[in-house]
Amino acid sequence: MTVRGTIRKEDLGAGVFVLAGDDGVTYTLVGGDRALRKAGQQVIVEGEIDPEVADTGMTGAPALRVRSWTHS
Amino acid sequence: MRNGLGYAFFLAIAGCGGPTGVPPSPPALPPAGIAVDLADGTTKAQYDAMESAWGVDMEFNSVAGPTYGIAISHGALPADVDGMLAAIRATDGVEAAEPLFSYTALDFEPNDPRYPEQWNLKMARLPAAWSRATGKGVVVAVVDTGVATVEDLEGASFAAGWNFIADTAQAIDDQGHGTHVAGTIAQRTNNGMGVAGVAFDATIMPVKVLDEFGSGTSADIADAIRWAADNGAQVINLSLGGGARSEVIESAVRHARRKNVIIVAAAGNAGMRCEKECRVEYPAAYEGVIGVSAVGPDGTLAPYSSWGAEVDVAAPGGDKRKGDGGGVLQATIDPESPGVTVYQHNQGTSMAAPHVAGLAALLLSAGASPDGAERAILESAADAGKRGWDPRYGNGVIDASAALARVSSGPALFGAAFKAGLVAFLSWLLLRRLRRTVSGAPSLGPAFATGALSAAIGLFFLGYFGLPSVPLAGGAFRVLAQPIPEWGRAALGVSPTPIFYGAAIPMALVFFGLPFVSLRRALAGLSVGFAAFLLHAAWSGAALSWVPGGRYATVAWLGVNAFLCWHMAKELLRMTADRESQGYR
Question: pTM higher than 0.90, yes or no?
Fold first, then answer.
C-alpha cells in the first residue's frame, strides 16, 4: 500500500516516529531508515501493514512496515 | 482539616516506620524538610503560587496528597528554617507548617545528585523499602532495544544476554529505550553520580528484540521470553506491545510461568485514542502477565496510558504535560551520538512497567516466593481511582514499602498464622463447652464448620491461587479471605468499629435466617466463630473506633458481644438438637 503523509514524533518512551497519513490514519513506522524519521517531513511511504509487530510506542496505531519511501 | 498538624505528624512517622516498629527517637539532626498542611480544596494554581512565593519545592506527601492537603518539601532548605516556617504559616490557606524529621534510619536517602528529581521512586515508596531489600542476586531480563553500559550503569551487575535482531551475544542498545528501562530497574545507586534505580543490586539480563527504531516481531519476542526463562531470568520486563494476540508469545509466556518467572508488561500508550472504552495491548493482556498502567506525578492516570480489564497495577510512568520534570528520569544513550550518556525524562507505560519488575526483584531478594511476590505487589498497592480494583489503576499504585512488609517480616506472617490458630482453638473450646451444655449434642457437619471458619478466620484459601488478581471478582475473594469482622476493613478500608466487632452481624443473620431450618447449623457455626473472634480481640487489646471510655469499655463491649454470640449459638444448637430428637435432620 502507499501512504502519503507527515512524519511526527510522539513523546513516548525514548520517542517514537509515526506517519500521520493524509488518509486520516496514523501509522507506526517499522523499518526504513533514520532519514525517514525527521519530524515534519512530508513523505510517500510504500509498505505493508504488519500485525506481527510490537514496539516501544504501543500507541495502538497499525504498524506500517516500510518497503521504500520518497519525499513528497 | 482542623487536626492537620497532628495528622501531618502522624504521616511523617507512618511514612518512615516499618513493621519492625523502630520507636521514634527525639530528632538530633537538622530537619530533613518541612511538612505543610494546606486547607482542603487548595487548587493546583494556589499551590504553585505558594511554592514560588516561598522558594521551596513542595510535593504532596502521598497519592492522597491532593485530598488531605499534606505536602512536604524536597531539596535543600534555607539556613533559617524557622523564619521560613513562620512566613509559610502566615500564608492564607495554610493550616500548619512544621519541620519534618526523619524518625528512623529506615528511610534510605541515596547520594545520587539528581535523586531529588525522582518523584517516581518516592511515589512507589522505595526509600522505606531499600533498607530491607535491594534486589541482590535476582536476575531481571530487560527484553527491549538492548542495554548500553552508560556511566550510571557502570559497575552494575549484568548476566549474559542475547541479541535476537543480530543473533549475537552483544545486546547493546542502539535506540535508548532499553537502557532507560534498565536504569529504572537497576541504575547504580548511592554512587554519587546521576540517578537511582528501584532494585539497584539486581542483575540485568539484556535481551535485544527491538531494532534501532524500537520495533520487533512476535517471533523474536516469543523466543526472547523462552530464552530468558531458560537462562535464569526470575523476572522479565516487557516494555513493549502491539495490538495483535500472538499464539507464539502466549505459549512462551506459559513456558516462562511454568518456570516460575514473574512477567511484567506495559499496558500500552493508546490512552489518547480511548474514551469510554480502552484496550490493554499484548503482551500485557495475556493471562499470567502483570499488566501495568501509568500514573503521573499527581498520582492520576497519565493521559497516554491504556487501561482495561487486564491492568493489574499502576506505577509511575510520567506525565510531561507540565514540563519535563513530570517524566521519569534515568540515564540512557542518545541514538544520534551513542557512547554519550544523557539523562532523560521519559514518559510512557514503558517507564511504569520496570518499577514493578524492580519491585518484584526486591521482593524475591527479600525471600519471597514468585507467587508470594506477585501477591504482595497486587495486594499492597495503594488503592486509586474507584474503590478496589478498577480498569484504570488495577489494584492501585504500587507501594514497595507495604509490599516488602508483607513478605520480609517473618514475625508478622508467623503472627497471622498464630492468631488464626488461636482463634480456631478458642472456637473449638467454645464448641466443646456448647456440646456439653446442649443436651442431645446435635450433629454439626460442614455447614457449621464453614460458618465458624468464615467468622473466625476467614476463607483464607481464597487468598491464594492468584484468585485476588482475578479482574472484578478478585476484590470479593480478598474480602472473603478475611474473617467477617474484618470485612469492613478489607472492603472499605475502615478501622474496626463496634458494628463489625460485635454481635450485630450474626444477630441480623440469625434474625433473617432462623425460619430456614437448613441454615441453622451454619448460623450456629457463625455465632461460635464470632464469639471466638471477639474474645481474641478482647484478649489482644484490639482498638475500636467510636467506643468511649478507653480500653476497658472496649474489652467490656467485646466480652458482652462474645457472650451474646455464644448464647445465640447455644439456642440454635438446642433447636437443632430438638429437631433431631424428633427424627428430623
Answer: no
